[in-house]
Amino acid sequence: MSFNGHARLITVLGTQSHAGKSTIVAAFCRILKNMGYRVAPFKAQNMSLNSWVTRDGGEMGIAQAMQAFAARVEPSADMNPVLLKPKGDMTSQVIVLGKPLGDRKVGEYYGSVDDMMRIALGALERLANAHDVIVIEGAGGAAEINLYERDIANSRLARAVGSPIVIVGDIERGGVFASLYGTYMLLPEEDKKLVKGFIINKFRGDASLLKGGIEELERLTGVPVLGVIPYKRFSLPSEDSVSIDDKADGAGCGVDVAVIRLPFISNFTDFEPLERLARVRYVALDEELGAPDILILPGTKNTVSDLKALRGSPHFERIKRLAAMGTPIIGICGGYQMLGQKVIDSGIEGGKAETIEGLGLLPVTTTFGQYEKLTRQVSKRVTAGGPILGPLKGTTVRGYEIHMGMSVSGSPAFEDDGCVSDSGTVIGTYLHGLFENGQFTRALLRFACEKKGIPYKQTATTKDPYDELASHVQASLDMHRLLSIILEN
C-alpha cells in the first residue's frame, strides 16, 4: 500500500483509551494553525457513538470534527474515514467515508481491515495533498499486541506513511512511567524507531517531583519527554461514553437537569452547552432519578433495545409523572422516538419485527421500515407555540440529523421536524446540536427557573476554548523540540 501525500505528519498515540489524545491533537491543530500552517486532523478508525454530520451529509466522529474546528477547517469525512458505532452483541454499524456500509460482527469487520486500510490511506493522502501538516490520532492503547495486524489506526498506519510518533500517558490513572515504557517496548522494532517523544498528561501537583522518573525513562528508551501537561478542564465535546464518568457536577444557574443514561446513549455531546449553565446529571436506569427541573431523553444507537430497557425501569412511569407535573421533557432523536405512542420495527433495529409502546407523551408514531440512515445539516424555523417555544416562534434553529426510522407527527416543533405536546412542555426533535442554539437554551432554562421560583441569570462565555487549550499545552511542552519533530520529518 503506497502513500504519496506531501504534508508533514505527526502521529499522537496513547498508552490507553482516554489518555487525552483527542485534546492534544486539537491543541496541536490550533497551535500550528496560529503559526500559519494549513493543518488538518486525521483518525483512520474511530469507535464512538458521538458523531458529527458534515455539510455534504457525511457522518464522522465528533472528536475529528472538534479537531477540525481547532484547525479552523471544515470537517470532512476524510478526517475519519472509518467510524464504528457499537450496537451491542459484538456488532457495530460501519461508516465508511461518511456513509453507512452496514452492520458487521467483529469477525466480519476484522476480515476487511486491509480494505479499510487502503481506504484510510486514500483519505489521508487526499488530506496530505491539500494541507501543510496532518496531525494523526491513534485509537485506544497503542500496544494492544493481540491486534497489531488488524490495527489500522496506530503504529501500523504511522509505519505505512513514515510518520514520527509521540506517545501520551495519563498520569491521573496511575503507573504512567510503566505504561509509557511498556507501550514503547511492546511496539515492533521498526515502529519504535518512529517514536520521537513522550508526553505526560493530566498531572496534578509539582512537576519537579517527576524529574527522577523522567530521567530514567529517557535513559531506558533514548526517547525524550517533551513535557508534563497539568490537568485542566476545557469546554470541548466529549468523544465517547467513558467521558460521562469524568463530567463535573456543576451548579450553574441552579436548575437540575437529568439526562437518562440509556445503555446505548449516543451524541451526549448535545448537552454539553447545558453543562456550562446548569447542573446536568447523567442518570443510569438503575439509579435514583429524583425530581429534576428538566428531563432529557438523549439519542441512542438502538432505539428498540433502549426503549425496552427504559420500560423495564422505574424511570418509565416516573417520566410520565414528571410530564404531568409540567416538568419540561426534551427528547432528542431516539429519545424523541421514545416519547411517542409506539415504535414499529420491521426488524431493522431489534432484529425481529415487533411493535413497542412508547411513553405516550407525544402524538407520534415511528416506523423502522428499511435500513436507511438520514444524515444532514439543517436549519429550521420554530413553528410551535407553548411556554418554551412560543417566545421563539419564527426564529431559526440549526443542527444536524443522524437517524434511522421515520416519525409521523401532527404537531411539529420546527417546521416539518419534531413534535410538541398540548402543554408545550414536552418537546421532541431529530435535531442534534439543539442546545448550541442559545435562544432555545435560554428559553428552556428561563422557563425552568420561573417554574422553580428562582431568578434566571444569563452567563456569557467569550473565550475561545481552542485557544485556551492551545495556550495551556504550548506552555507545558518543549515546543522547539516538538516543532522539529513535526516539521523536519
Automatic annotation (TrEMBL):
One of its GO terms (molecular function) is ligase activity. Keywords: Cobalamin biosynthesis, Glutamine amidotransferase, Ligase. Residues 256-439 form the CobB/CobQ-like glutamine amidotransferase domain. One of its GO terms (biological process) is cobalamin biosynthetic process. It holds the Pfam family CbiA. The keyword Ligase applies. Pathway: Cofactor biosynthesis; adenosylcobalamin biosynthesis. The keyword Lyase does not apply. The active site is at C333, H432. Residues 10-232 form the CobQ/CobB/MinD/ParA nucleotide binding domain. Belongs to the CobB/CobQ family. CobQ subfamily. Catalyzes amidations at positions B, D, E, and G on adenosylcobyrinic A,C-diamide. NH(2) groups are provided by glutamine, and one molecule of ATP is hydrogenolyzed for each amidation. This is Probable cobyric acid synthase.
